[in-house]
Amino acid sequence: MQWYQLDKEKLEQKLHVTTERGLSSKQVEKRQKQHGANELDPGKQTAKWLIFIKQFQDFMVLVLLAATLIAGLLGEYIDAIAIMVIVFVNGFIGFFQEQKAEKSLAKLKELSAPFAYVLRDKNWERKPSRDIVVGDVIKVSSGDRIPADMRIVDSNSMETEESTLTGESLPVAKHTNSLNKQDLGPQDQSNMAFMGTLVTRGSGTGIVVGTGMNTVMGQIASLMVKTKKTITPLEHKLAELGKILIIVALILTALVVVVGVYQGHPVYNMFLAGVSLAVAAIPEGLPAIVTVALSLGVQRMIRKNAIVRKLSAVETLGSASVICSDKTGTMTENQMTVKEVYLNDTRLDVTGDGYDLLGDFYSNNNRVDNQFPNLKSMLLYGMICNHASILVKKGKNFINGDPTDGALLVAARKLGLNQSDSEPYRIIKEIPFDSTRKRMSMIVEDENKRQFLITKGAPDVLLPRSAFIMSTNEKRLMKTADKEKINNEINKMGDKALRTIAIAIKPITGKQNDGLLEDDLTFVGLYGMIDPPRKEVRAAIEDCKEAGIKTVMITGDHEKTARAIATDLNILPEDGLVMDGYQLNQMSSNELKEIIDRVYVFARVTPEHKLKIVDAFQQNGHIVAMTGDGVNDAPAIKASNIGISMGRSGTDVAKEASSLILMDDNFATIKAAINEGRNIYENIRKFIRYLLASNVGEILVMLFAVLLGLPLPLVPVQILWVNLVTDGLPAMALGLDQPEADVMNRKPRPPKEGIFARGLGFKIVSRGLLIGLVTLIGFMMTYQGNPENLVYAQTIAFTTLVMAQLIHVFDCRSERSVFSRNPFGNKYLVLAVLSSIAMLLCVIYFAPLQPIFHTVFLGIRDWIFILALSAIPTVFFGFTKR
Ligand code: ADP
Ligand code: MG
């Protein structure tokens, strides 16, 4: 017997579960142990020791190790061992950095992992999909990805899209009846839903019959090859840059070696020095540090409620020039409260705030009760044609389900209606709400077996479909005058920023033509509900404006409502345009492109319009961030440069299409993420600048010395030590730097801009040159042509180089002069520099280390000399401001 052949009772028996209470926690525990997690095989992880070994794979490091080995064999034990130790320490650092990056990426994955709505011990709970076991009872609805293979036991117009399995992209309707056939393929098992497929419409309940690799998807996955790790454009750019830098470094080192040998240095000495220099100068660690900086930035974003799904988004964020954001729920609280109702030509005001159930209905300041004509039935219809429920947690009311629906429940409660009033009505059929239809309908049957339809939705959608109207005591034909009055009222509500919903009914008699089901309605009334803007949003929009980013509001709501809220939030400038879905439909993409830069609000749009909007902005050269939460939003989210989905209200489909998830659904979080994105990019520039300027300094001092026929100012261990100490912690600390005060006052970064743009290349070369020069001067003035001074002069050169770099690191914090911000504002950097100085002092003053690092004691006067020299590069450019 196959699962699809069983009926619900057999199924329940077989899996020891009922759809009323679900599995017990004991059963779940046992089954989890037995079958493992509901995951497709995660594949093998790279062993830790392999990652460690990988740190030494680098060609130049291997050459260095070989050269050291030779040195050791030649009797230079101390040098050989010192170099080995440094190389290993370096390897360890690389290893830990990689581990850290990996860990934070894993955490990220966990945060954006899918959840399922499952019944256990009679309670509906949201559980990570990986915890699902066979026998679990699961509810899914439009937009969900099916978490495991399941047999459908309840279907509410449920349709799924199974192209991942069958290649067929047309949705398949799902029903609950058992199929009495043999050997059906997945595409014909219409009472089953399969892991990984999508619910495109309606909702349903199923009992899990297969998890993990034991699913149809699992069988396919076992045949598939693993996808490679993706790298971000910046990492790619840097890898390319790294290749060039390697070649430049190698050429320069080769030059140092050749000139040195020509000047009479021993070949072997020059070789070891050259290899050390190459190892130090080649920024092989750059991509790793970039990854670390990205992932640290990503962690900071998590703390600000933004989950990055694709690392590349971090970079793109800094270039965003337009944010297209949903209004409802993202800019507003998504806390709807009915403030007005309109029925039989009368407007009633409704008191009470939020989801508080206390409140009354007033007509011209006179309280009315449930005797007011039609009021009770209107509110009752709103309760029946509804999916939400009111939950009370810790004395506070919450809405489970759509807040728009919730508001109608709250309004009904205010008149004294409650659940027992809607219970006698049995739901026969439902056509779910979606943002394209902008309405939902239910056919219900009352106690007298009379059936009727309740439709609720956008008033301008329902009004043309209404042929009758409920007036005080009768149902009568709708006249043009009625429509005008209602339209007038809709506009008035819109101007007050109220979201409007109409409710209409229709008796069902005899056989219905499905296509005409929602026609010839009887209009009952209007609701006007407020959804207050989120507090933080106004400031965030202002900040975006400062940052050269345009905010565009997108909503399915009425134009008036959208305009009122946009004006309130300061989105809409005086000459700004509001466009609605009907206008959008009329326009060709070229016409839209011409005008879109002046549009700030799109009202009464459907998710399908979003794609057109993204496209038009992109054609005008914009980098577009687009938010969305539903299934139909996914294409636009994908097409935008930064797709953003909602952590709370978002569907799986939208989340999967997005590169950023807002955990709190909040517009302000987008701004915070952009801020962070810009910061991360600037920090990456900061440490690239620091590392490369340091390397330029190291190479130049060696090159100048050999060109001038001097002895080598630095010995190999010193070079490697400099590389380890100054490149390690201080560079990392720059990656954690706070943004400059004005990052959000700059224009968005042009996406094509190179890493060295905005004067970075000049900064690197000029600082590097000066660092090399002052080191050389320190060496020459101490050496004075006397070989007896050599070790002393090398100690001075070494110390000057280190100090010059450690001072210069503060210069790197700003695009402008080092004096433009408090140099000690980054406490990590101060700590890193202090610890580097401590290590430097050890190497100079700890006697046993002196022979290893070829150093001698330095006195106060030496230090004054060194500090004066090493401050020059930073101070000089601090004043020239270049
Ligand atoms: P938004 O982009 O603001 O979320 P929607 O597409 O969700 O807009 O809604 C568009 C219109 O559809 C609303 O203005 C309202 O009139 C109507 N509407 C919204 N939610 C519901 C619902 N649950 N039931 C019926 N109609 C609804
Ligand atoms: Mg909505």
From TrEMBL:
State where the protein is found. Answer: Cell membrane
Among the entry's GO cellular component annotations, what is one? plasma membrane
- Please tell me where this protein is predominantly located: membrane
* A Pfam family it matches: Cation_ATPase_C
According to the record, the segments passing through the membrane are 56-74, 244-264, 270-294, 687-712, 718-736, 764-783, 789-807, 828-848, 860-879
Which biological processes are named by the entry's GO terms? intracellular potassium ion homeostasis; intracellular sodium ion homeostasis; potassium ion import across plasma membrane; proton transmembrane transport; sodium ion export across plasma membrane
Establish whether keyword Aminoacyl-tRNA synthetase is in the entry: no
Q: Which GO terms describe its molecular function?
A: ATP binding; ATP hydrolysis activity; P-type calcium transporter activity; P-type sodium:potassium-exchanging transporter activity
Domain of life of the organism in this record?
Bacteria
Bilayer disposition of the protein: Multi-pass membrane protein
Q: Extract the InterPro entries matched here.
A: ATPase_P-typ_cation-transptr_C (IPR006068), ATPase_P-typ_cation-transptr_N (IPR004014), ATPase_P-typ_cyto_dom_N (IPR023299), ATPase_P-typ_P_site (IPR018303), ATPase_P-typ_TM_dom_sf (IPR023298), ATPase_P-typ_transduc_dom_A_sf (IPR008250), ATPase_P-type_domA (IPR059000), Cation_transp_ATPase_P-type (IPR050510)
Q: Which UniProt keywords apply?
A: ATP-binding, Cell membrane, Ion transport, Magnesium, Membrane, Nucleotide-binding, Phosphoprotein, Translocase, Transmembrane, Transmembrane helix, Transport
Q: Which reaction does it catalyse?
A: Ca(2+)(in) + ATP + H2O = Ca(2+)(out) + ADP + phosphate + H(+)
Q: List, for all copies, the residue spans of the domain called Cation-transporting P-type ATPase N-terminal.
A: 2-76
Q: Which protein family is named in the record?
A: Belongs to the cation transport ATPase (P-type) (TC 3.A.3) family. Type IIA subfamily.
What name goes with this protein?
A: Calcium-translocating P-type ATPase, SERCA-type
